């Protein structure tokens, strides 16, 4: 029997554990449910926590931030992310975790993943798990016109103003900005942003493009050009934002 901590944006009660990971209450582990505040773990001794689960089923951006904070703390316990199938397309080396488990996993699969993670222990600690051992490895912010996409902090600024984007809006804008001047088809955007297992139509791309243009504002909405019958193109010259640069 292990002591598990589940960090979730849901209410911090036992019912949330069953909502996030239905198979968890069926296993013989002690589960403590807490909010998405890593500070709660600092009040617990190492002997009180064997493994941390982070709920990434509701807000991927928030979950990624929590995972990076946990990595920076250098906890000597394995960290697992609980994800939905739609998140598999966006997980990469920038997510500091030891393993992941689908929210739909049955008790047998969940028990096996927990057993393996507990047996291996954390893959690394501190700056290594945060991916920050070498500052030069951090992705540079990409600047096109006066739009700055910062992958390290997952923020977007336009004319120096922070934009309030959803996760998909951020991913869509990031992909377009990474390919300035290139015509990208709707099917390509659907594949790259929503993943190959997404069964919705390309209309989804059009809806998100409209929302992006609205948030960029009338003075910048033309940065995302429409190629009728094909797709979209982000216009402008690309360049990394240099340290100390001042937003327009």
Question: How would you portray this structure in words?
Answer:
The protein is an alpha/beta fold. It has two domains: 2-119, Response regulator (Rossmann fold); 142-234, Arc Repressor Mutant, subunit A (Orthogonal Bundle). The chain has helices spanning 14-20, 39-42, 60-73, 107-120, 126-130, 167-178, 186-194, 203-216, and strands spanning 3-7, 30-34, 51-55, 79-83, 99-102, 142-144, 147-150, 155-158, 161-162, 184-185, 224-227, 231-234, 238-240. Strand 1, helix 1 (14-20) and strand 2 form a beta-alpha-beta unit. Helix 6 crosses helix 7 and helix 6 packs across helix 8 (203-216). The model is unreliable at 125-135 and 238-248 (pLDDT under 50). One of its GO terms (molecular function) is transcription cis-regulatory region binding. It holds the Pfam family GlnR_1st.
Ordered list of secondary-structure elements with their pairings:
Layout: E1 3-7, H1 14-20, E2 30-34, H2 39-42, E3 51-55, H3 60-73, E4 79-83, E5 99-102, H4 107-120, H5 126-130, E6 142-144, E7 147-150, E8 155-158, E9 161-162, H6 167-178, E10 184-185, H7 186-194, H8 203-216, E11 224-227, E12 231-234, E13 238-240
Parallel strand pairs: 1-2, 1-3, 3-4, 4-5
Antiparallel strand pairs: 6-7, 6-13, 7-8, 8-9, 10-12, 11-12
Helix pairs in contact: 6-7, 6-8
């Amino acid at each position: 029997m292990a002591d598990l901590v589940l960090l979730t944006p849901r209410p911090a009660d036992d019912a949330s554990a069953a909502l996030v990971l239905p198979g968890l209450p069926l296993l013989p582990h002690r589960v403590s449910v807490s909010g998405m505040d890593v500070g709660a773990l600092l009040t617990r001794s190492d002997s009180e926590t064997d493994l941390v689960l982070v709920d990434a089923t509701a807000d991927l951006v928030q979950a990624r931030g929590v995972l990076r904070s946990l990595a920076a703390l250098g906890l000597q316990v394995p960290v697992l992310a609980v994800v939905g199938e739609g998140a598999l397309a966006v997980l990469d080396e920038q997510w500091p975790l030891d393993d992941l488990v689908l929210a739909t996993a049955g008790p047998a699969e969940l028990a096996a993943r927990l057993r393996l993670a507990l047996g291996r222990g954390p893959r690394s600690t501190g700056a290594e798990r945060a991916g920050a051992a070498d500052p030069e490895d951090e992705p540079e912010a990409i600047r096109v016109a006066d739009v700055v996409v910062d992958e390290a902090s997952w923020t977007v600024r336009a004319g120096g103003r922070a934009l309030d984007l959803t996760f998909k809006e951020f991913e869509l804008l990031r992909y377009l900005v990474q390919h300035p001047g290139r015509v990208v088809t709707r099917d390509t955007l659907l594949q790259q942003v929503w993943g190959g297992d997404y069964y919705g139509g390309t209309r989804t791309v059009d809806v998100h493009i409209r929302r992006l243009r609205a948030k960029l504002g009338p003075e910048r909405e033309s940065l995302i050009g429409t190629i009728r019958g094909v797709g979209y193109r982000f216009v402008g010259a690309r360049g990394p934002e240099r340290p100390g640069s001042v937003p327009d």
